[in-house]
Amino acid sequence: MANMNNEKFWSTIEDWPTDLPVGAEFCGNTSLHEKIYEECEKFDNWTHSFDLSEEADEELVYNMTTASGSDMSRWEHVREVQFSKESAQGGYGIAPNDKEWGLFWAVPRKKDFPTVHQFMEENPQYIDPYISKLRPNDVLLSHNHGPDPQFLYNMSINEPEGSKFAIYPTGIITYKPGDIYKLHVNNDHALINGNETRYHLLFKGGRIHHVDAGRIN
Ligand SMILES: [Fe+2]
After folding, report:
1. Does residue 168 form part of some domain?
2. φ, ψ for residue 76 (rounded to 5)?
3. Has residue 32 been placed in a domain?
4. Which of 47, 124, 178, 200 is the most exposed place for a label (fewest CB within 10 A)?
5. Tell me: the pLDDT tens digits for 171-197?
6. pLDDT tens readout for residues 205-215
7. Total domain count for the chain?
């Protein structure tokens, strides 16, 4: 957690504390990333973040909303605060106020993404996949997924030259293609893409709910 605006996020990164729990943990690497990348390049049915409410299929909505252990009540927040044109214009979402911004999503179904399914069959701890596709040189502004301790899994399918991802308080995570990290997304995180389309594959994690007045929410 930190709730920094994007400018503060990147400008204070050298001074983040070193005595807090880490923001990211390395979970391994898969050599299947090249084949998965080819499947991404071939696929042409992505949903733009701003069109999620109209276009997204049920499985995409479910996988995105529940990725870090939330129930479906978070969906309103996801589409209205994180991924809407209004929030970009208002300066409180993940998107900068730029109509050319291009962050897209898809659920990798077996027909189009057989290698993703091969990976999941070989590694059954990874479930409920969805893929993000970000246009060259676009950014995701710093954000977090809420105050409860929570995580998801994030695999790099490719890393365009010049791309930069960081999460509080750990700092810059040097992803190599095929790397999988457990990201503790209650901490602020942000991304600057490099010079090519960037694909990442996300899987279900979980969360610890706040214990409030002796009751577990
Ligand atoms: Fe995020």
Report:
1. yes
2. -55, -45
3. yes
4. 124
5. 999 999 999 999 999 999 999 999 999
6. 999 876 655 55
7. 1
How many angstroms is it from 87 CA to the middle of ligand 1? 15
CA of 120 to the centre of ligand 1 (A): 22
Residue 214 falls within a domain, yes or no?
no
User: 145: CA distance to ligand 1 center in Å?
Assistant: 6
Residue 131 within any structural domain of the chain = yes
- Is the per-residue pLDDT at 134 higher than 80? yes
What does R_g of the chain's alpha carbons equal in angstroms?
17
Q: What is the mean pLDDT of residues 145-163?
A: 96
Distance 139 CA to ligand 1 centre (A): 12
CATH number at residue 177: 2.60.120.330
Q: How far is the CA of 12 from the centre of ligand 1 (A)?
A: 19
141 Cα–ligand 1 center, Å:
9
Reduced to 3 states (helix: H, G, I; strand: E, B; else coil), residue 212 is strand
Instruction: State which residues form the domain around 155.
Output: 6-47+106-206
How would you classify residue 114: left for phi > 0, otherwise alpha for psi between -120 and 50, otherwise beta? alpha
Please tell me the distance between residue 185's alpha carbon and the centre of ligand 1 in angstroms: 6
At 89-99, the pLDDT tens digits run 887 788 988 76
Per-residue pLDDT, 208: 85
